[in-house]
Records
---
Amino acid sequence: MEGDLLTLDQLTERTGVSARNVRFYASRGLVPAPVRRGRSGYYGPDHVARLELVRELQGHGFTLSAIEKYVEQIPATATPSDIARHLSLLAPVTTDRDVDVPGDLSGMGISPEAAQAVAEVYAAHGRQVAEELSEIVRTKVWPQFREAGYTAEQLREFIHRLKPLTIAGLVTAYEQAIDESQAQYDGKPVRRPG
């Protein structure tokens, strides 16, 4: 790890995050404090990965509060690879480009039949979440907005801002479900957040 350590200047150059913001994010627990060597602080791959995640979440419209809640779900022991997985889960869903799930999975050596089955699960559950959230917006959110004098444009803006929060919520729920499934498969007791 010693060879991977960066000074604050090197970290800001590598990530594009200002020194002031690095310190602010550390004070909010979004990134760990620097590693101390004497009077100097150094930053490792974990800091880089967590800063990249924070920047990505910001780029998708997450508020600081939503970022804090998202990052709280990532264990302090998470490796840079674990954090990169969060980025990979987040990025394809929130970008405007088309995602070729069967093609991407086939490229990983998964049979076309299995890849198509995975894509169909994603599509079915994506539609279900969208339909259920749309119903909540229609029956619970819009009446509240209308009563408060908000316009349809303000509702559209709310829905736009809801998208990254929905994605973060889905990623968190999926990770918890996978962890529970793996624990059951391994015969270990299931730990539920609480």
---
Amino acid sequence: MRDVEARRERAAAARRARRLRPAGSDDLGLRRGFAGKLLPFLVAAMAFLASLALAGAIAAAGFSRQWQQGPAAALTIQVPNPSAKATDAPQSRLDRVVALLRGSPGIAQVRALSHAEIQKLLQPWLGSGATDGLALPAVVAVRERDGGPALGVVTAELQAAAPGTLVDSHGDWTRRIATLAHSIQALAWAMLALVMGVATAVVTIATRAGLVQRRDAVLLVHGLGATDGDIARRFAARATRLAFLGGFGGTVAALPVLGILAALAAPIVGGIADPAAWMPSLPRGLWVGLVAIPVICAGIGFATAQVTVRAWLRPLP
């Protein structure tokens, strides 16, 4: 009973002291701690890396999705001797292939490339004018419809209509791109988790260093009746403020880097190539994540400081 009454008296004395204490007072001297001065810079570095890791994960997911909806969803069909006609059919080989594809329920779009377009595609490898006089096959770009027939069925029908027709579904490239994108995503999320773990360790070390530096003041205040929760709140408030400032600074420092990367990637993904207009090119999910990083840093600072201080004070009488 005496212990319970003593704790109640100490808690009441602490509440009275908080009411009489001026706003913004620092009776524990936490602002003079060296760890408090270093903490924002360390958290800023972690926030900078977290911003880049988050951008990498979102960019990999977007690139994979764009590939699945773009080249991976298309077929390239090559028709040798496209103008040749069979004796029993008035249509040329190319016309028969296009008609068959347009009549298939699984095909959403069919477009035969012109001779100029085929030359433009081959120019980087063969050079300008190298295809003059060559018997080039016709190329048909096809986009499949979801739920259509299997590729093997369409290929068999094409072979029957125009023997020697080649169908390229980009399957190998699709699998490789998907594997690469998933690997980049996994590495980015792992890096983000590692950065958060390091940030937690940094706040823990800084808080324990502050406890050691202000040990006498903490013990004095604790002996005068301050509760563990009151002391933990002081350290947590300081760590939360410094962690938020560091997270905000690190995120802002990452914005120019993300802008440069977005401008460089814009020609590839079809975005905005003007470096002065890079902000609209960043995904909305990335903006949400960037705004959340300082808040997460503040939450890590608050929770870590609370746990560290309470664990340090628990053995005290």
---
Amino acid sequence: MHRIVIATGNKDKMREVREIFADLDAEILSMKEAGCEADPEENGTTFAENAMIKAEAVHALCPDAIVMADDSGLVVDYLNGEPGIWSARWLGRDTPYSVKNAEIIRRLEGVEGDARSARFTAAIACILPDGRRFTTTADYEGRIAYAPAGDNGFGYDPILYLPQYGKTSSELTDEEKNAISHRGKALRLMLEKLKDELK
């Protein structure tokens, strides 16, 4: 059986990975469960680079496992891609998301329609024990809402409005969110790559 170590301590992420990878013959562990905890400086210039930096740090501690890491964030076109790869650290790591969300809405005052386009982007990086590396990236398109709405989410979820649903990401049900989740899509793409590689 293959051993897959996920470079996270986030229970929700672990649950999502385990659900999507349920049919893979693999033991799926968080980095804490595997005893391979790392906290590298994420100094890449893209989501994929930052995901690979995390994967490399954990791979150095668990070289015999398949290691996967993710990086994700909100990209607002009108703000030249901000907060982007700095999503967690934008306006300061300890700044509440309610403040970050209010600031994004403030900066888009007077901006209408398609000019409010934004998306969640997720990248997954994977390193196999033999050193082979893969990355997958996926998006979740929407627009910046005029006001935060919903409480079934976190981070920037309350301000990403999804026209096809007529509500924000925070107003979606878990089932609706899982169907279009940027991380879920990137994980499914990675699952297909792993199925090919682990035959």
---
Amino acid sequence: MVARFGGDEFAIIQSGIKSAADAEKLAKRIVEIVGKPYRDKGREMHVGVSLGIALYPGDGRDADTLLTNADMALYRGKSEGRNVYRFFEPGMDALMRERRALEADLEAALPKREFELDFQPILNIGSGEIVGAEALMRWRSPSRGLVSPENFIAAAEETGLIVQLGDWALRKACSVAAHWPPEMRMAVNVSAAQIKSGGFARSVISALAFSGLPANRLELEITETVMMDESDAVLRTLSQLRGLGVRIALDDFGTGYSSLGYLRRFPVDKIKIDRSFIRDLDRRDTAAIVRTVIGLGAELGITVTAEGVETEAQLDMLRKAGCGQAQGYLIGVPAKAADMSRLLRSQALLRQSG
């Protein structure tokens, strides 16, 4: 029996099974079938599903307990990735309590001004000069210390808080960049939830107006999850912002279902090669993929930025391949706004003296 709770939540009651292996077999089949791509009006679409499984009577003898425990298993699965299934385990209740405590602290953190932005420089490989930076959100909690974005961004997206956090980060980043040299660009990460919120374009325009930053100095980094939802509203919003001069960058390029298809459907200004490819540049097949992406960018007139550059050997290979920009610990670690400003001033002085 399949029942819809609401939104994108469903519950399945499987009866007459002999062991947990039967439930696992059904879960695998659901993940496999739902995850297959399908076409609608000429477009390839993808849907993912995650499942939490609780077994009667070991995991509960009444409906409420079984649903609660299945929900805990579902949260565990989502925290480890998408398109997965997980069985309930007794220790998961502690994980759920911690998740709820994290969400409560997260909700209170923004009005308490516990969030900060760090800025990682982006290098023009040809000129050897810094041409901008990416804003990276940090949460410094009085009780938790410095919380990794990997631990709180997902929770913010699931609770909807990412819209408020994103608006704050956008306005803060634009205000910082407004004091940088006029050739410097600021890159800000944007989640699918922000764009779907309905007021994203107004938030961007407001941040630019508040800070005085010209639109062409702002880059919005979107992931393929945004492009996968090709609703007219999403494409309209991105087109409107691009029309104002805001640049659109496709982040984590090459890690999704159909990266090349996104370039055909929506013209972006930049593609960022995911760090996983740069890490394995010493492998022949990976190096060939990276060179191909760089060549594709050149053919389409799209700037290509390599993320996660950590060695001189990686930078040298990218330079020889004609890659436009590089970002990573070799170029510079994420720094506070004041440190980034000092770096840019030093670069300007060196340029003048040269």
